[in-house]
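Hi support team,

I submitted a single chain yesterday and got back a structure, but I'm not sure I'm reading the C-alpha cell output correctly. Could someone confirm the output below corresponds to the sequence I sent? I've pasted both exactly as they appear in my results page.

Thanks,
R.
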Amino acid sequence: MSVAVVVFSGGQDSTTCLIQAKQTYQEVHAITFDYGQRHRQEIEVAKSLAATLGVASHKVLDVTMLNELAISALTRDAILVSHQLMDNGLPNTFVPGRNILFLTLAGIYAYQVGATAVITGVCETDFSGYPDCRHEFVQAMEKALVLGMDRPLTLETPLMWLDKAQTWALADSLGALTLVRDHTLTCYNGIIGSGCGDCPACLLRSKGLAQYQADAKAILASISQG
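Hi R., thanks for writing in. Yes, this is the structure output for that exact sequence:
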C-alpha cells in the first residue's frame, strides 16, 4: 500500500497538496503544527478540512517551544507584519528553523505510520523569500532524514516550480478550486478565504488567482506539460 504524510496547515498550498495526494496515494495522513502562530485559526481550519477530505489520520502537534525560540512577526503579536524586508534581506514573517522542525517531525510521523513520502507545499518559484522553502534545502533535509532513520523516505514538493497562478490551476485541475478559494486560510491575520487583502500572504494569493482567471486555458496547459 502506498502511504504518504502531508504537512498540512489548512492554507492554499498544503490543501492543494493534500487533495492531490488523496488522488495519488492509497492512504494519506496529515500533520499540523501548533507553534503559537499569529494566525492560529489555521489549526481549526486544518481540522475541518482534514475531516472533509477524509484523511487516514490527522495529528495536531504542539511545538510551541518554537515560539519561545524563533522571533518573527508570526510568533510575536507585538511585531507588525511588514511588507519591507529586514536588514538580513528576509521578510519579518520568516520563522527561523520552522521547516527544519516540521519536516523532521513529519519524517518521524511517516516512520510511525509506514509512509514512504512526506509531502510539503513549499515553493521556490513564487515564494516569500524564505530560505527553508528552497529546493536545495529540501534535498538536504531528505538526505538527513534517510541517513538518520536508515529508511527510504522521499520529501515531495509538488509546488516547488509552480508560481501562484499555476498553483490555482492545479487546484482547478483537481476539481477543488472553489474549496481552496473559499475554505482555506492563508492570511496572516487569520481571515478565511480571500483574507484581509493586505498582508503579504494575501497579496501573493490574490495576485495569483487574478492571473489564473485572466488566462486559465494557457496556465492549465503549462502545468499539464510540466
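A quick pointer for reading it: The beta strands are 3-7, 27-34, 57-62, 117-119, 154-156. Let us know if anything else looks off.

Best,
Support desk
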